[in-house]
Amino acid sequence: MTAATDLPDDLLERLGCGVVVAGGNGTLVCCNRPARDMAGLPLTPHALDGYAQALVGEGEAKALLAWLRTAGNGDGLTVAASERRWFHLTVARAEGRLVLTVADVTAFKRREVLLTELHERLAGEGRDLKRFAQDLAVARSAAAEALRRSEHANAALEREVGERRLLETELRRLADTDPLTEALNRRRFLTLAEKQAQRAAGHGWPLALLMLDLDHFKGINDRFGHDAGDRALHHFAAVVRGTLRAPALFGRLGGEEFAVLLPDCDLESATRVADRLRRLVKEQPPHADAEGGRMALSVSIGAAVLTPPEATAERLLKRADEALYAAKRAGRDRVAAVEG
After folding, report:
1. Fewer CB within 10 Å of terminal CB in the chain, N or C?
2. What span, in angstroms and rounded, lies between the C-alpha atoms of 299 and 212?
3. pLDDT at residue 168 in the model
4. Are residues 221 and 285 in the same domain?
5. Pair (199, 283) in one structural domain
6. Domain of residue 288, residue span
7. Is 95 one of the catalytic residues?
């Protein structure tokens, strides 16, 4: 047999168990780090009795040393230490030396103690382990059923929360949009326009606004009826929405009057957008009736751009409205522009 001290020191230090080697007179030859840690020793003691006292306490050390003197090669012993800790010791003898391996078995012993205490308690109540296992199975079944019901309840709650969120989203949409044309309503459009005006003024960016008014719309209602007039408004709004791109805003200010806000857009670009809208509205007339007849539709557009830092949505609306009336006075179905 090879003595433990024949192993390299670094290997002894890395072992998972404690190794203590004592000479025939009880003087320690080796005590690796795990052995010192389990005994709470920063340094290796001089003698085996010192290690025994540190490991199990002075009261138990005498019995432990007596066992070590008589233990044969391969004998083992589990000893209790302070703070509810247990260690298993195994003895080997080689070349006149005692080689003692020390393993911390506290986790196993605590589990054993708990099981023993549980068994004793059940036995004291007149119940055996079989009955306990049956009760445990019933409890597990009840817990599984409770978990299943909880999962169903959570799923139902998640569905309800999702439906409420959808409802809230729809309510916000209805509160902000015109139900016939699906454009922003006047209140929401003006609120967003004011925010964009403040943003443009803060950064010194241009802000363009188009005012759109359907030409002779009263004549459409008089000739084809109000249902046809509603279809014309819905069709017109769909044409405009299909032409614009974010971050443009489209709103219905009232009746047949609409507005388009174009952030960071100069007058030339705004005029091009306005003229494209005008042409598309004229080239894509809505249906007048179920037989497929078409009703002529045209739009007059006023374009305005404000660039000064003091620009406001109110001033921009006023300038765009002035441009719209200029387009109407010039014969309708055209774009007029002002810059301020």
Report:
1. N
2. 6
3. 65
4. yes
5. yes
6. 186-339
7. no
Q: Could you give the C-alpha distances from 238 to 233, 242, 277, 286, 330, in angstroms and in order?
A: 9, 6, 11, 11, 27
Buried b (16+ CB within 10 A) or exposed e, 60-99: bbeebbeebeebeeeeeeebebeeebbbbbbbbeeeebbb
The one-letter amino acid code at 181 reads T
121-179 residue pLDDT tens: 766 666 566 777 777 788 788 878 877 887 776 777 677 776 767 666 556 666 789 99
User: Does some domain include residue 117?
Assistant: no
SS (H, E, C) 172-195: HHHHHECCCCCCECHHHHHHHHHH
Residues 144 and 47 in one domain: no
Length of the chain: 340
Please give the tally of structural domains in the chain.
Answer: 3
* Token pair belonging to 54: 């540190």
pTM above 0.85? no
- Whether residue 155 is found in the same domain as residue 292: no
Which listed residue (256, 268, 291, 322) is catalytic?
A: 256
